[in-house]
Amino acid sequence: MSFNCMVKTTLVAGLLSTSLDVNVVQAQERNTGPMGDKPNVVLMLADNLGFGDLSVYNGGTRGGIRTPNIDKLASEGMRFTQFLVEPGCTPSRAGLMTGQYSIRSGLSLIIPPGAGGGLQPDDVTLGKTFKSVGYNTTYIGKWHLGPGPQSQPQNQGFDQWLMGFKGSTDGVLYAASMRTAEAPEALQRALEVQLVEARSPGGAAQPIRLYDRKYRQQIEADIAGAAASYIEEQARTDDPFFLMVGWTRPHFPNDPHEDFVGSSGAGKYGDSVVELDARTGRVLDAIDAAGIRDNTIVIWLSDNGATVRSTATDEIHQGDNGPFRGELGDAYEGSIRTAGMIRWPGRIEGSVSNGMISVHDFLPTLAGFIGARIPDDRPIDGVDQGDWLLGNQGHSNREHLLSFVGDRLVAVRWRQFRIYPIEFLNSNTNPSIGGYLGSTRELAAFPRVFNIEADPKEMVDVLVSEGNAWLMAPYMQLIAAYKATLVDHPNPPGGNMTRY
Q1: pLDDT tens-digit profile of 115-132?
Q2: Residue 77 confidence (pLDDT) above 50
Q3: What class has domain 3-16+402-485?
Q4: What is the DSSP string of 235-276?
Q5: Closest residue by Cα to residue 131 from 297, 345, 366
Q6: Do residues 338 and 50 make contact, with C-beta atoms less than 8 angstroms apart?
Q7: What's the CA gap between 348 and 201, in Å, rounded?
Q8: Taking the CA of residue 144 as centre, how many other CA atoms within 13 Å lie in the half-sphere pointing to its CB?
Q9: Which CATH class is domain 20-399?
């Protein structure tokens, strides 16, 4: 049977029940939120925290790595056990902000030091979506969606950007390395990581201090303090607010605040997770103290799975992706399946769900909650999950996800099946590294197929051995549907650091 014939098969079309167009219409037809007053929204985003790093996910098996504040938050809302992201910091953040696959913004690879690119003025972001219906909007912490002014939060729908920095926390390691290597002084100055702020839209964020190895120990406390102050201040006004907090932990190097050194008994990484929980607790306490708990949606997510091998030498194998293989940067389950939860008192019941939800779904879902429109002039890959979250239906509206690294489609998830057109490999270096520092290998003719529910380690290829070659039909249909969107909306060039 030819490719075109297969992808047009009526049976396959019936199997793929989720329609992006339908979800776009549903979001646009919600003219008001589920409550009379628009809810406040606080969205917290951890940096490279694995599926098995929180005690609510690992059942306490990691000893002293206890996360009581996040655990309590999870018990008060819906905790996701199948929350899916993209294979890197920049890609996941782009997907969260725009509701689109990151490749549609040219952001499907982590933005490295010295590189340009980023969100553009015509991108529609969470910040712009909330601003369109009268919200006060503030971003605090890590951004990593482009260094230029046009890409920064204050020019992407947020009223201000506090305690920010343009790249990634491993930048605090550069100074010592460059001095040792006797790098040119101009390069050393150019690659210093500055903490920046922008108190109003327009222009570029301005430096306020150096983000160095010493300040690495203090930054999370200051981010939490800025968030708590903003919540207290905004609660005294009549305007609803959207606050997004970009935590820096547990991205390496995980030098914890002195109050948390040795707190986990499980090394720097464990201490960092314990600190992250405490800082989260401060933000949650601020919501309670301000008396706005009942009308505030709290979302807590990780942007990626943990870096297991490709991290600082003294943190190798400290991050835990639970029962799943892979790590940040590849497209295996451990890279893209991580922790996520949402609380909305009186609206979202306390529960644990294995329904599929992706980082892209929050833009259309939150737009539905607050009565905002989402754009109809571009593909939106997120789906509106409002009815599922609010208990109006018993199932998620998502059943598939595509994954990209650079300009390459590297994985397709459909229901419980993981389908890979390439393989990801660890290096033969010492120590062996993988994920975003690993390599890939082409396959002969057919993709690898795994049943993630029966085989969470993805060890047994079931394409032929269990009679699953029929999966090539939905696999190719999903790819064809995505490629059809590129006719009118071609992607900009994808990220690339190895092919020139």
Answers
A1: 889 999 999 999 999 999
A2: yes
A3: alpha beta
A4: TTSSS-EEEEEE--TTSSS----GGGTTSSSSHHHHHHHHHH
A5: 366
A6: yes
A7: 34
A8: 32
A9: alpha beta
